[in-house]
Specification:
2 copies of one chain form a homodimer. Chain A is α/β, with parallel strands linked by helices. Chain A has 22 helices and 20 strands. In chain A, helix 2 crosses helix 4.
Chain lengths: 643, 643
């Protein structure tokens, strides 16, 4: 999972382990466990470097799993074997290992979460060393089975090693996938659970306790063993024993690890269970001070390790960190949403909130604090969450359900439909929507949610562009909406570049004119689209082209007559922070051509036309032509006769 | 799950147990187990009556579970308790019990799967006695949890009894839902597994063996017990013992039952495991002979039971069966699809097929027979199936993945997206799409699949109207498609009313003119829409209005220029066997208004504007205005100035 907040102010100078030094460690003439320990620490230094430079990334899980990943790549994997991580957000760790092995270009160390670089989650098309796309949880064992079955059919005999999280095991697909692996005797599969006991920001036991994991998985017919996953001296022999003990069965190793392992202050020592305190290093970049302290601690340990082996310390090289910039006056929709929900709940006792392990990212901390008995943490179990909410709604409550838009609109898609057919009201709040943040990559860039939810009967789909509008959405959803509502929320704090309008309430199907102009009408929703559209209109004005810009928070039910009257014959350009198909622009086109409205000369669609790129926010918007310049160019190019 | 084939020729006269007789059995002064046994048999007679009259329904599971359902309703459930079936397709059994208890009107016995009657799967809006909508599998425990949490919040203390199938337990959501029930100590929940060991048409052990179910569920922290679910003398005490043994934990009872229990030839005695032979009474109506024999056997046993209690035999009353009619010359897309897939596989060795427990309904029997090593039965585990296929595609295979459209487009929605982002090709074949068959109800009427899959990057969406076109779709998908393909298949054999065109190959974005006419152009896909559109055009011709009818099998990528040229300025009416949002009509409207095509005067959309009705095929099409008369009326009404 992916926090949307990045620690401000990157370190001025960063240090990395250069390739020759990595090569030296990889080929150390030493006990394999000693070598792997030193190798993993060098990779930890490069993980810190990558994430500090990128400004975001998952340190905690990269560090908890890196001893496993290092050991597998140094000592276990053979030609024809496959390794991948099912959780995927430990990608910086994998990249550091592959770079150290010379299997990825060293220069890529500077390009984590950058356009043309290494995506925030693994991607086969941009990173050929990657085995399969992950980032969405719970798919790993299923994919391992597919590889083994395909290999068997082709007469190949490779093994598949798949790393999973422990919080990830809350996903039903994990359990769904176990049975046939056992029934088919897929002994080629070894799953390794990175059992760091913290999911996102909280203890797994507090979110949704896994119980006796070993007993559970054994009951499914798998061979299960346990080891210290941060100690190659434990991991190595344990893997060998497990392999020998079950020649005809799939295997699962519970690797006990520490989140943030290898940096004492990033390990969760003293983090109280059951409390409000968050684990601080799940995602985001370290502060300059944290970076310096963490690097010093790892370097010192690595030096000691090498000394013990009679080797010289590793010489790190310095590299300049790129300067980051934060918006000066951003709209922060998630806190606004969360505060509004907690506030509305004061006067609506039926309102309850459900969360799927993202309470920080979906703004739910205030709600949990003010209404603890009405807050239900469901863990990474979106299907279960939605069906629970459906029953609560039948029992008279008004549940608000939360996850990232990419997961919420898809994973429980049938469960949401089932709820909608019951004629009840559930509020679905999907955060982290759209192209940005661009760093996590396409598994987390929710640009398909409007389409996936667009045909839910009776559901309204709303996307606010400002904190004020986010509050209006909550109030409308709770107090006025006749059926279920999807509230689509951009997570990243975002500067609008215009004063957001402040109407008293939402007007169904209609929006706000942000800027007038008679040459064309640009229509969109959300802070990203509208900030860029507004800036595009300003650019076009410099060229003598005056565009109206309309904030239309309704993504599906569009008042075509109102819009046509506004347009007064001018061409309409829809901008979608979504794929071209099934987004708001289809709703606008449909409203304008199939309703009884004044004739509209033309509707143009600007949106995402391919799998989203990964990069900085600016890079990604530009790559997809959704920055101000891109929109301005498209308006001019598409409407030459008119503009 | 729902077979699309109904046994032809209903019995001429049917017999039912009248209300006074049901009342007599319900209040028999006898041992509760004896009373429940007699009551259940009377309900069995009425289940047979309902299903024979409706022409379809699930006898096997209604019979396996009816002793449990009867016992719960007669002896266990108290005010404030809830009972529902998670699998839902045992609805006829539940209806028969509720009718016998006087909680549903007796007349509804004649209205199973009819408009305004009792839907094929439970529905809260049309049947107030129903607790929650089911029919899509695996949601039951989650919903039970939601009810209990809502009750606790409101200070209510009801218990929740939820019946599940055993094949249903292959769904990941079942396992996903177990953990928090144990962690929260939801002792109010008792799940009862109707453990009849057959799912759809095959043995569970052959499809995807559950292994040691008791051990598995116990490992999740639930209290588990086992009993004979067709014998109230076993079930009753076992439920009491389980309740006493676990006052603070959720409970699960494995009720061993026989599918078709109570009619010897409907029980699976002698059905060989691992074989090709199908269990014959999962769904569909009995033949006249089967009806007569089954009724006689139950009646005879019931008479013996009553004799032993010193009671008179039950007096059944006869009622006329409605006459059914079968199409004379229907297009049967599923066999055509299945044969084509098996055929194409001869020359494409990379082609493999995956199925989610619907190999009969998705036409896969020929493929399994001809290519057994390339056929993978995955069980009711759509997410697992799709992720396996994704890995197979990465490993060089061309997987074709099968389920009903309503499940395939939704349950693994995120898994399909994950696969599409990998740039591989997987063929998704969704059957049972659209409004008909109208009997199963909205959980099975796939009218949202185009929207749910519409924004998958690189995916083509196709719907054939004829056996010939189904073959072309398979050939194009396997041999030509650059990316993944969704093939949308109407299952019910359907009479077109016109000679289907027979082009040699598909032409991307374009279709076939079925009928010419200059007043309006009616565009659609699939046999249901096109048969009704063609007939509507014939009706309109009688009134002097000449409509062109276009078969456009491309649901998303529409060649707008081609279509605009065909229309030559005439208004275009799109007919969708799908919700109005996100279906083919949105693609047409978008293509015509946003591409550089000749001006189009108007696009009108006809489609499904609310949750689909349940009824006979004719009833449902008429209710939604998608029969020939409805379409003709809409064309005239919507285009008054032009037509």
């Amino acid at each position: 999972m992916e926090a949307s907040v990045t620690r401000a102010g990157g370190p001025a100078a960063l240090r990395r382990v250069p390739l020759p030094e990595l090569e030296r460690l990889r080929t150390l003439d030493a006990d394999p466990a000693e070598r792997a320990g030193a190798f993993a620490d060098a990779c930890r230094l490069n993980v810190l470097y990558m994430i500090a430079r990128a400004g975001s990334g998952h340190i905690g899980t990269s560090f908890s799993s890196i001893d496993v990943v290092s050991w597998l790549h140094l000592e276990v994997l053979r030609e024809g074997d496959r390794y991948f991580s099912s959780k995927g957000h430990d990608a910086p760790g994998l990249y550091a290992v592959l770079i150290a092995l010379g299997r990825l270009p060293f220069e890529k160390l500077d390009r984590l979460r950058r356009l043309g670089g290494l995506p925030g989650h693994p991607d086969v098309l941009t990173t050929p060393e990657v085995v399969t796309n992950t980032g969405s949880l719970g798919m790993g064992i299923s994919k391992a089975k597919g590889f083994v079955l395909a290999d068997r059919l082709a007469g190949r005999s490779g093994r598949v090693f798949v790393l999973t999280g422990d919080g990830e095991l809350q996903e039903g697909q994990f359990w769904e996938s176990l049975a046939s692996a056992a029934n088919r005797g897929l002994h080629e599969i070894t799953a390794i659970v990175d059992h760091n006991r913290i999911q996102s920001d909280f203890w797994v036991a507090d979110v949704s306790d896994l119980g006796d994991l070993q007993r559970k998985v054994e009951a499914f017919g798998w061979a299960v063993a346990r080891c210290d996953g941060n100690d190659p001296r434990s991991l190595g022999p344990a893997l060998e024993d497990l392999d020998r003990s079950a020649p005809d069965r799939p295997k699962l190793m519970i690797a006990d690890t520490l989140k943030g392992a290898g940096v004492s202050f990033m390990e969760p020592h003293g983090l109280p269970p059951g409390g409000d305190e968050l684990y601080a290093y799940h995602s985001g970049a370290p502060s300059p001070d944290e970076y310096a302290r963490a690097t010093a601690e790892i370097e010192e340990r690595l030096t000691r390790r090498l000394e013990a082996l009679g080797e010289a310390p590793v010489a790190l090289e310095a590299a300049e960190a790129p300067a980051g910039s934060a918006p000066a006056n951003p709209q922060k929709l998630m806190p606004a949403y969360g505060e509004a929900l907690a506030e509305v709940a004061e006067s609506e006792p039926r309102l309850v909130a459900l969360d799927a392990d993202l309470m920080l990212d979906t703004g739910l901390i205030p709600f949990r604090k003010r209404h603890p008995d009405r807050f239900f943490e469901c863990g990474i179990a979106e299907q279960d969450m939605v069906s629970q909410a459906a029953a609560m709604a039948l029992a008279g409550l008004v549940p608000a359900v939360h996850s990232f838009g990419c997961f919420l609109s898809t994973r429980p898609n049938e469960q949401i439909y089932n709820q909608c057919t019951e004629g009840t009201k559930v509020i679905y709040a999907g955060s982290l929507v759209g192209l940005v943040p661009g760093g996590p990559g396409h598994s987390h860039q929710s640009v398909r949610d409007i389409s996936a939810l667009g045909a839910m009967p009776g559901m309204s789909l709303l996307e606010p562009c400002s904190e004020h509008e986010a509050r209006l959405c909550v109030e409308w959803a709770v107090r006025e909406a006749p059926g279920s509502v999807y509230i689509r929320l951009v997570s990243v704090p975002w500067e609008l570049g215009f004063e957001p309008p402040a109407p008293e309430r939402l007007s169904p199907g209609r929006g706000q004119v942000l800027r007038t102009g008679a040459d064309a009408v640009i229509v969109g929703a959300g802070p990203v689209v509208l900030s860029q559209a507004f800036a595009a209109a300003e650019l076009l004005a410099e060229r003598g082209v005056e565009c109206m810009v309309v904030d239309l928070p309704w993504l599906r039910d569009v008042d075509g007559a109102w819009l046509a009257e506004l347009a007064a014959g001018a061409p309409i350009v829809c901008v979608d922070n979504h794929y071209l198909t099934g987004g708001q622009s289809d709703a606008v086109a449909s409203a304008l051509t199939t309703q009884d409205v004044a004739p509209v000369s033309l509707v143009r669609k600007i949106g995402v036309d391919r799998v989203p790129e990964c990069g900085t926010n600016d890079e990604v918007l530009r790559a997809h032509g959704l920055d101000a310049e891109g929109i301005a160019e498209r308006v001019v190019a598409e409407l030459p006769a008119r503009v």
